[in-house]
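step=predict obj=Nucleoside recognition domain-containing protein n=409
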Amino acid sequence: MNRINLAAENKSRFSTAVTGLLAVLLVICVVYDPSEAFKASGQGLTIWWRVVFPALLPFVVLSQMLIAGGFAHGLGFLLEPFTRRLLGLPGTFGWLLPLGMTAGFPAAAEAAATLYKQGRISAHEAERITGASHYCSPMLIVVVIGAGFLGRPELGLLLLGIHWAAGIAAGFTMHVFTPSHATKEQADAVVLTGPNHSRLRVAIRHMERARQEDGRSFGKLLGDSVTTGVQTLMIIGGYMLIFAVIIHVILQALPGQIIPVVVKNLLEVHLGTYAMSQTSSLAIPPVILAAMLSASLGWSGLCAYLQVRAVLGPAGIRERSFLVNRLLHGAYAYIITLLSWKPLSTWLPGSLPAYAENKGYALWSDTPTAWLPNWSLAIGVMEWQFWMLGLLTLGILAIAYVWRRSSEH
């Protein structure tokens, strides 16, 4: 008990130190240059409103409603043997993985925290699921980076595929080196499954039981889900504004061109990838630049880590393995890009374009907002994301079914 209290006290001190440091940095930046701080905050707000908000809010609301309605629990029961054997994670990971891949961070973290509060998964599993389901939004990678920053939508699709493959590889590596623990769902699967109980029928019982335990009407559930989604997005927006101001002011004191790009990518993924896409004057080989973009997306920035921490912290879930997963994700993305670039360059002729020739932006101009999607494009991308979420979920179900049939024979 003393160890638990000591760990909680140390975590509280660390959180206080990080919060205090961010507050001090923000005040210094605003006092140092108020006009530039105001411009930077406006740019951070624009990125949040035109990229993060439309890409994330519908999926957070949908996830909360599906969890309360029992869908995640029923699907988790069906997928439990497959996900437990492959990644050492509960079956609900089969829903949270497609959610994270299509909605982007921190949608999976929000869903994992909800499942932990319901007692469906342990804190250790919630921590691991969050790390393995943490992906950048397809809207950011394909539309903003590929079509907007680079002028090549097909390159955005390539980066998205590498991003997904590297994330799965990182999750599998964490499974190999991290012990897993049995859950209540796994125990129920053993007890309730027998010769007279098909898995589909028992999965429906799990859905019904979860819905009854929640007990909220549809109107109440919809209101609570929207409230939770908006609160989460407000936290994300606050972090993005703070980091936009801090980055903009700090970079004015940094020399050269390489150091500002590195700092941006370490701190915030949207501004970091934009700065990296404007570095054609540095004569970096296209393959190295693509690998650096992939690594930046895998790491996703300190701002993303704090967003996830803000979701998991109040629920009492640690995020230590989350940081390890981010490092692995970035490293795998870098390596996969280097290995696949030469064979894929024949399919994607021209490699990376000279994407800074006609844009007229300086390296640290912090003005990627001109290349952000408008609302009509954002709505179209949302429809594409919903289709992708459904197809990925059905794909995982199909793979689990084939795996089960092959294991029976």
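step=describe
The chain is about 80% helix and 0% strand.
step=end
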